Amino acid sequence: MLRAGAGSWLIPFLPQPSASSAGVPGVAQPRLRAPPASLPQRRRLGPLWPHPAGRWAPSWPWARGWSWCWGLPWQSSSPCVSAAGGLSLGWRYHRGKIYYFSGEQKPWGDAEAACRSTRSHLTSVTSPEEQDYLAQETRGKSFWIGLAATGPGGSWRWVDGAAYSQAQSFWAPGQPDSTDYGPWGRENCAQIHPVGNGLWNDHNCNFSFPWICKRDLSGP
User: Fold this and answer.
1) What is the pTM for the complete model shown?
2) pLDDT tens readout for residues 65-95
3) Domain coordinates of the chain in residue numbers?
4) What is the reported pLDDT for 218?
5) How many other β-carbons are positioned within 10 Å of the β-carbon of residue 186?
6) Is pLDDT of 49 > 90?
7) Which is higher by pLDDT, 179 or 188?
8) DSSP H helices in 31-127
9) In degrees rounded to 5, what are phi and psi of residue 148?
10) Are 189 and 144 in contact (CB under 8 A)?
11) Cross-referenced Gene3D superfamilies, in alphabetical order (predicted)?
12) 8 Å CB contact between 148 and 190
């Protein structure tokens, strides 16, 4: 265990359904606010796509009945965020995935349960690029990630099913060290840690820290 102080965009605007007035009987049309100038082009947001010129295309109707919002069932009578359990508000998009950096603190197991309630998991880290992104976003704080020593013989595994590779890991020097906390057990859960600019540290799973959820938008 280590001891130290503990170009993405958000989606702060939500399209709201309104009565149709564009010649599509019975189909609601979106009432839209302009997106920020920095919004990437051709990026899908819930049920809508930005116009290639950087404007919303107001003629595209919202689906009647069930549609999809971040891969979750969504009805045109409700804001996208209601069906997505918060996935459209407060999450950050990065290279085909969305991440949630919590402001609360929970034990590792409760943090994973919170992620699962939004159909995501505690984040895996599967590339140097992703590690650099998470280290930058955590800004010198400790966050639970989805790595735990739960396999045979205490082997490390990603909770989202991603393959764990010791060669492609980002442990801080001397970690993991599996410190024994007696009745609390050993350090079997991993966190991004301030030491080493976001390198990993093992910690006791019963301690409370903020956490990072991740969902791959290309998945089911």
Assistant:
1) 0.62
2) 444 454 554 444 444 443 344 444 568 989 8
3) 40-84, 92-216
4) 78
5) 17
6) no
7) 188
8) 80-84, 108-116
9) -145, 150
10) yes
11) Mannose-Binding Protein A, subunit A (3.10.100.10)
12) yes
pLDDT tops 70 at residue 153: yes
Q: Which amino acid is at 141?
A: K
Q: What ranges make up the beta strands (E) of 14-65?
A: 16-18, 29-31
Model pLDDT, residue 2: 62
Residue 151 is which amino acid? G
* Per-residue CA distances from 172 to 86, 108, 130, 157, 196 (Å): 33, 19, 16, 17, 6
Helices (H), 36-104: 80-84
The residues with which 200 forms a beta bridge, in sequence order, are 171, 192
In this structure, what DSSP letter does residue 106 have? B
Q: In this structure, what token pair is assigned to residue 25?
A: 């009987």
Question: Which tokens is 40 given?
Answer: 């990437």
8 or 187, higher pLDDT:
187
Class of domain 92-216: alpha beta
Cβ(84)–Cβ(188) below 8 Å: no
What the block records as the tokens of 39 is 């919004």
CA distances from 184 to 181, 198, 202, 203, 207 (A): 5, 25, 14, 11, 9
Q: Are strands 16-18 and 97-101 parallel, antiparallel or unpaired?
A: unpaired
> Is the pLDDT confidence value at 146 over 80?
yes
Contacts of 171 (CB under 8 A, 6+ apart): 199, 200, 201
pLDDT-derived band at 159, boundaries 50, 70, 90 = very high
